[in-house]
Amino acid sequence: MANAGGTSTFIIILTRDSVRTDRRTITMKQTYISEVAAHAGESVTIKGWLYNVRSSGKLMFLEIRDGSGIIQGILPKNAVPEAVWELAGTLTQESSVIVTGTPREHPKRPGTFELDVAEIELVQLAQEYPITPKEHGVEFLMDHRHLWLRSKRQHAILRVRHEIIRAVRDFFDNDGFILADTPVLTPAACEGTTTLFEVDYFGDEKAFLTQSGQLYNEATAAALGKTYCFGPTFRAEKSKTRRHLTEFWMVEPEVAYAELDDVMTLAERFLSFVVQRVLENRQEELKVLERDTAKLAAIVPPFPRLQYDDAVKMLQQGHADGKVENFFEWGGDFGAPDETFISGQFDKPVMVHRYPAQIKAFYMEEDPTRSDLALCVDVLAPEGYGEIIGGGQRMQSYDKLISRIAEHHLPREAFEWYLDLRKYGSVPHAGFGMGIERCVTWVCGLDHVRETIPFPRMLNRLRP
Length: 464
Ligand code: 4AD
Ligand code: MG
Prior knowledge:
This protein has 464 residues and is α+β, with helices and mostly antiparallel strands. The chain is built from 13 helices and 20 strands.
């Protein structure tokens, strides 16, 4: 009926009494599906795509989506000429259509609206759509991510992501923080030298994609007091887990004159705010995702605080009880199963603090009462989701920082500017970073991080 794959200046219009071919008449008039409740009984025009079409023989059900929602359009056979009915029956999934009709509240489902279809304007007849309502494998869906984003579940996840990002910004903006974004192209490592993506910088110098804005945050916090940065960060570690992306979005606050306890309090206030905001505004989406919202409602301050030493004891006891497979030796970093076990003991995020300095980054402040411990914190999300926040207090002393840089075999020249921060008015300061996708995974109750970002980048995936 229309030329598949192309756009024509002519369009097919199906009305209740005719089929017309006409010049394109895309009007400015448009009602979003999310707004139809306010227009019950009126004629509205919806611009979108056909999500699904089925026919009972007497009635045709056209599910129309426009990004703001999905509405079921109803076309009765006996209300239209035969030719209109037949043409409507050839409309394919994901064809772009402009539909005019009258919204009406469903008699048995209050709050749900259907559309009595009066006119369908076909914008493009879609070719056979690769994603059908049947089950598809994950790799197939990931290969078609550019189309997969059109499905209900993906809408729900991306809306929760958006809500979380908005809440993150509102929280810091309303708490006196200044957004001071940090560079993506950097000359040196922040989180360890083995996990960097290298970029050729005009032939004579190497640059690296940033792993964290923290070092620059420390400079902006010394300038502005309370700052945050929020942008894409990159990790080249070859981790193939359900928690790792190679490109992810991190929000990082940094506070001058703050100590470890202060940022733990900030982290629990922040996370609680974000989760409660999603509960307030995204009930529909959480329902689509079948999320147990009672578990999220429990996310309010205070969160349990657990010293690393005690977390180790907890793991060792778990091992003795046959609940943890391997014996955990003090001094090691937690693996995913360890984090899952520890966080499984609490129904709120647990803040594990004071890890051994030897397993943490060079910039961590040492515990004044135990120099083998770092003043750091990892926040582990409940229900086995593991680490979603990492942070702590930064090394304040110029001399100690120089020794740390040497111990970690880092090139001192690259850190001269960072050392300046300890030469000119050094103060205690602290901050943290939260990976947005880890947070979305937890809040949505997903089993993998890959669906929480429109186009995930992972060890084996750079496309589409
Ligand atoms: O614990 P990380 O590595 O900490 C830092 O980068 C600090 N410099 C942040 C700071 O103090 N300003 O990363 C922080 C958070 C993690 O808790 C996790 O949520 C997320 O970033 N993250 C990842 N998310 C997805 N994929 C990965 N590969 C991630 N690595 C870290
Ligand atoms: Mg970490």
